[in-house]
Amino acid sequence: MSLARKLALLVAVPLIAVVGFAALALSTSVGQAVDSGRLADEVSLGRTAGALTRDLHRERLASLAMLQNPPTDDQRAEFRRLAGETDAHAAEYRTRRAALSVVPDHFADVLGRIDTALADLPGLREQVLSGEHANLSAITFRYRITAADLATLRERVSAGAPAELTGDLRAAAQLSRITEYIGLQEIAVLRAAADPYLSPAMNDEVRAARAGVVDAAYAFSQGAPAAWRDWYDRARVGEDATAVQVLDDGVARTQPGQKVVLDAAAWTAAMNAHLDRLGAVEQRVDDAVVASVEAHRDGQVLRTLIQAAIVVATLAAAVALAIWLGTPMIRGLRGLRSAAHTAAYESLPIAVFALRGRNALGNATPKEYADAHGDAVAVRGTDEIAQVGKAFNELNHSAIHLAAQQAALRDQMDSMFVALARRAERLTSALIAQVDLTERGEQDPDRLAALFTLDHLATRMRRTNNSLLILGGEGSARVRKEPMTCHDLLGAAVSQIARYQQVDLHSEVDQQNLDRVVASEMTDHLAHLFAELIDNATAFSSPNSRVTVVAAPAGDGVVVTVTDKGLGFAPDALAAARASLADPDQNPGAVRAMGLAVVGRIASWYGIDIEIRSEPKQGTVVKVGLPPRVFTRRADFDWFHGQAKATAPSTIATTPAKPEQAPAAGADQRDSAKISGVMTAFARGIGAHRSANGKPDRPAPDLVEKS
Asked: Is 508 exposed, middle or buried (0-12, 13-18, 19+ CB in 10 A)?
């Protein structure tokens, strides 16, 4: 997972927690706002129910007048007018009833009864108007039940209201109950006055209505605000209220069985006036309740919006802060990663690789070389990322500085190799010159054989010196001017090893008389290369086994195969040998494993491919692919090469004669000297490995004779 995702996850987890808690709080506020809106709708419905209750009372009072006596046309017209007003409020009630998105459980049943009663009103009115099958008690009872359900609806509105609104809603419902009980009292007294005498049941009904008014008025006074009580008290004073009190006192003094003496018109007028005054108070109370509920709803909505805005602003601020702080940090880390990646995989390897050649530092010191490469990472600021960048720059500088120190040490070691090899070469050359001088004047075959042995040892010493020169990046001290055939080249290589008697040479290139001879400037290095390979083959083989060297054409080049039946390589040793050949400059044991390091370095100079196949106790096969660039035309082959070829077999190169094969004592001195000279020349490989080539970082130049 990337760092950006980790940081995003680190920021997202607390944000999600905050959002969760905020959502919980917001859901509560939203729920309260929704409940406040629903309560406002319910209160509006209750206000309409109060107006509908008053209309139903007037309609009920008109129906009573029509059913007690034969109705007149004016009474019918008035009844229809009152029914129209009731229908108008009933339509408003249905509209507000439909506006309820959710019907609360606490008054779902009463809503159903009210809906049914309103639907049955047209039929009830037809009975009143026609007078057929009209029962006064049944009709007044149905009006009473509907009015009671409407009052119950108003009372139940307060069930789901907040505590601060519950008292006002209950007080408003009690005020509606007062008007309903006063209406019931008015109807009961009128019915009692119409009868010949006051029956006990009718007396109880009148008393119950009067008691209901008292109880509702007491409940109202306990829960209503002072302003509402003042409105109610003012509505209870006046001529109509006094008239109602006087008439009601007269009815109250009537005992059951007595005739109720009452002016029905005065009673009705006084009661209706009193109800109108109370109805006005009820409307004012309802308006105040609706205003309070709507204010509460608006407050809840505003509170919810403020909370939502705070939550959104907090989240936006948190996200903005995370982006503001995290973006530079992520950008810095990405820049650090990119710079470190570039330094680790590009600039640092290039800087180290540039130190592989000789004298790569030039005149600069390791510190100057490291300082010249500058910082790998651009550092800005002083925070932890900048500190990591500084530490990485120090690490990169130390790595380059260490590589430069190693390059300087390697140059010093190369210089030591070259200096030692040059000194040894001068001594070896002096030794060979002295041996040659002694050979020319020596006539004793035994001494010639001993001199031959010394000459051969000196030649091997010269190969060791040349190996040190090659490891030091220099060529050999002497340079050949003539090209050589492949067979002569391999013969020169064999002449430089200790166990030359085990080697069998075969050159299909020379047998097929191909126009391919080794260029003069490369002969000594190639002879050195094959001498190292053949020497390894004989060194790790039994003295009784044979080492076969075969040169065969391959396209425009030549493939030389060196095969032995020796110990072979273990897998780890084979891998190390191949690595040494592939990258000889990085071989830390170049002096200890000088042969492979020298072979690898010469092969890298001339683009020679070398393949090693080996199995433990099965021997080793080395294939050397010589490219076309190491050959020249056979037309350049001079008289010396022809003489050298004439003195050696064409197929099997019998290597220099052993000391016991020297001419017997007493032979012709001139013949002995001649044979000794030929043996000595051949032992040195017909101009053994005495050449130098260019440095490894450029093609080998044309070589000239050196002293």
From this structure: middle
- CATH code where residue 439 lies: 3.30.565.10
DSSP letters of 304-341? HHHHHHHHHHHHHHHHHHHHHHHHHHHHHHHHHHHHHH
Alpha carbon distance 625, 561 (integer Å): 9
| Domain-terminating residue out of 281, 314, 347 | 314
Closest CA to 445 of 660, 665, 679: 665
Q: Is 546 helix (H, G, I), strand (E, B) or coil?
A: coil
Structure-block tokens of residue 384: 């932890």
Which residue type is seen at 630? Answer: V
By the 8 A CB rule, do 278 and 182 touch? yes
pLDDT value of residue 682: 39
Task: Tell whether 306 and 184 lie within a shared domain.
Answer: yes
Q: Is residue 576 part of a domain?
A: yes
Mean pLDDT, residues 306-321 taken together: 84
Question: Among the three residues 286, 314, 342, which one is the final residue of a domain in this structure?
Answer: 314
- Alpha-carbon distance 347 to 377, whole Å? 11
Same-domain check for residues 429 and 286: no
Nearest 5°: the CA angle 440, 446, 452 is 55
Residue 361 lies in a domain: no
Q: How many domains does the chain have?
A: 2
- Asked if the structure places residue 211 within a domain, the reply is yes
State yes or no: pLDDT of 70 exceeds 90.
no
For the record, the structure tokens of 190 come out as: 């009128």
Whether residue 323 lies inside any domain: the answer is no
What's the pLDDT tens digit per position in 444-496?
888 888 888 888 788 777 777 777 777 776 665 455 667 888 888 899 899 88
Task: Report d(CA 369, CA 404) in Å as an integer.
Answer: 7
Residue 207 has pLDDT above 70, yes or no: yes
The CA distances from residue 29 to 49, 301, 342, 600, in Å, are: 30, 8, 56, 84
| Residue 310 and residue 426 share a domain | no
Enumerate the β-bridge partners of residue 558: 553, 626
- Rounded Cα–Cα distance for residues 265 and 262 (Å): 9
Contact 524, 467 (CB under 8 A): no
Q: Are residues 274 and 423 in the same domain?
A: no
Sheet containing 619-626, strands listed edge to edge, beginning at the edge strand earlier in sequence: 503-507, 547-554, 557-564, 619-626, 609-615
Domain range for 636 is 417-683
Nearest to 566 by CA among 531, 500, 615, 498: 615
Are residues 95 and 225 both part of a single domain?
yes
Contacts of 297-306 spanning 24+ positions with Cβ under 8 A: 297/33, 297/36, 297/37, 297/39, 297/40, 299/36, 300/29, 300/32, 300/33, 300/35, 300/36, 301/33, 301/36, 301/37, 303/29, 303/33, 304/26, 304/29, 304/30, 304/32, 304/33
- What are 556-615's pLDDT values in tens digits? 889 999 999 888 888 888 888 888 787 776 555 555 556 788 888 888 888 899 999 887
Q: What is the CATH number of the domain that holds 158?
A: 1.20.1630
Domain identity same for 309 and 425:
no
Tens-digit pLDDT profile for residues 614-629: 877 778 999 999 998 8
